[in-house]
Amino acid sequence: MLCALLFLLLFVPKNVELARILGIFHEKSFSHQTLGTKLLFALASKNHDVTMLTTVAPKSPPNNFAVIKINLQGHATDSGGDLFQMYNYNVFQLLGTVNSIELQWTEAVLADTNVQQLLLANKTFDVVIMEQLGNHALKGFCHFYNAHCIMLSTMGSTYLTDEQMGNSYNPSYVPYRFLNYPPQMNFYQRLHNSFVILISSLYFHWVSLPQHNAIMQKYFPNAPSLNDLMYNVSLMLVNSHYSTSIPVANVPNVVEIGGFHIDPPKNLSHEIQKYLDSATDGAIYFSMGSILKSKLMDKQKIQNILNVFGKLKQKIVWKFEDDSVDLPMNVRIVKWVSQTDILAHPNVRAFVTHGGLLSTTEAIYFGIPIVGIPVFADQNFNIALAKHLGYGVSVPYSSLDEKTFGTALNMVLNNKTFKDIALQRSKIFHDQPMSPLDRAMFWIEHCIKHNGTSHLRSIALDLRWYQYSMLDIMLSLLFSISVISMIIWKLFKTLFRQKIFKIKKE
């Protein structure tokens, strides 16, 4: 008994209050589920009581980890093929399509039988953690349980995450996530970037937010307006790091944890390990991620890629869902493989990727230069940034042919600068005082211990939009200048008339 008491005194962490945590991760793609599961498993390892609402039940959950399965039939990303058509959408098509998908997601989550049973059960939660991805009505959970709301932005910082936290989002050097502009934009790019952000903001406030509010009020009838709940966020965890993104000034409760999902590499299968070990001239890994299916690419584009690969002396591992394709001798198809384990292999010299944030982060983690084939969402932005920083080349899906792809791949393979920059960025990423996952744990538990983060909340959130933009000040100054100018003009006219009258009289 005495030994057990001594163990508790010595080894149990002090000043850490255990919390009941509800995690909501509805996006069923592998990358999004990886982030949610990693974060919630880490909290469970610290003895917090964790419940996860998810479309994909994680394997081997801990004892203090409950899983509630959500059934999302007709999920927008199930088809996969349609996403290859989004590369040429304009901003209005993109906003409408994405908003429609997000509304379907949110309604399906709240209407799910298991979710309704949870809401009817007499359960309490201290913290609600959810993904920041068009699921605004789900903030009703935070109100329903009177819990602290913590968001995880899987795409890094966006204008919506910044607006919720009172963070600065300057369109002069922060490109919109769905554009392919670098941080150093020319006049036209800054003009277009500002226009797109303005349109997106107006669309969100006038179209999307009212629709989400209607859904929230339907399932949480006593909740306040979503216009208020949107800004009642204790902590915003963003999947970014200054080594892989644009350095910006964040308010204290916006915390960068990019790369927290990466585990130390494990052993590859014997077949793939032997194949890569034998790649004396180097190897290339090609993957379009977990949502996009390579087999659904345009057939001519697939053939163009294979033609380029067949001319190389490097060996290629391609994550491809159809093994009936006629392949060159140096190409090996795998239907699924651990991406980080392959990128960790010393013979891998280039990574051909769709440009998802997890993929570009993993490329930097292991110091691998990339050839990006962006298709939709933030992929254009991520690849444009890689090109700007010097560790990648962009081949947009719309312009992918044998010449453009071959030129880009040979450039990355034969120009040592790309590898050097990728390695330098990798050193910057690894030079951190604590791991990204430990940083996430610290700030979540900081929120728990101090009953929220009101002490970190930006005063900017108390201002009206016109006050924050200083429009009232500028209008007031403009009005004052106009009045003074008018008075001066009237005096001048009066004096001038008097002078003319006097001259005429004389």
Report on the structure:
The protein is α/β, with parallel strands linked by helices. It has two domains: 16-260 and 435-457, Rossmann fold (3-Layer(aba) Sandwich); 270-430, Glycogen Phosphorylase B (Rossmann fold, 3-Layer(aba) Sandwich). It is built from 18 helices and 13 strands. The strands form two sheets. A seven-stranded parallel beta sheet has the order 3-2-1-4-5-6-7, sandwiched between helices. α3 (91-111) runs parallel beside α7, α10 (299-310) runs parallel beside α14 and α12 packs across α15 (416-430). The longest helix has 35 residues, at 471-505. It is globular, with a radius of gyration of 27 Å. InterPro entries: UDP-glycosyltransferase (IPR050271), UDP_glucos_trans (IPR002213), UDP_glycos_trans_CS (IPR035595). This is UDP-glucuronosyltransferase.
On the 0 to 100 scale, the average pLDDT is 88
Strand content: 5-15%
Using the 3D structure, state the CATH architecture of the largest domain.
3-Layer(aba) Sandwich
- Total count of strands: 13
Low-pLDDT segments, ≥5 res: 4-14, 77-81
Looking at how many chains there are and whether they match, the oligomeric state comes to single chain
Distance between the termini: 117 Å
Output the number of helix runs: 18
Radius of gyration: 27 Å
Structural category: alpha/beta
| Total of domains | 2
Q: How much helix is in the residues?
A: 40-55%
CATH class of the largest domain: Alpha Beta
Corresponding CATH superfamily of the largest domain: Glycogen Phosphorylase B
> Major sheet: order of its strands?
3-2-1-4-5-6-7
Shape designation: globular
Major sheet details: 7 strands, parallel
CATH third-tier fold name of the largest domain: Rossmann fold
Catalytic activity: glucuronate acceptor + UDP-alpha-D-glucuronate = acceptor beta-D-glucuronoside + UDP + H(+)
Enzyme class: transferase
Keywords: Glycosyltransferase, Membrane, Signal, Transferase, Transmembrane, Transmembrane helix
Subcellular location: Membrane
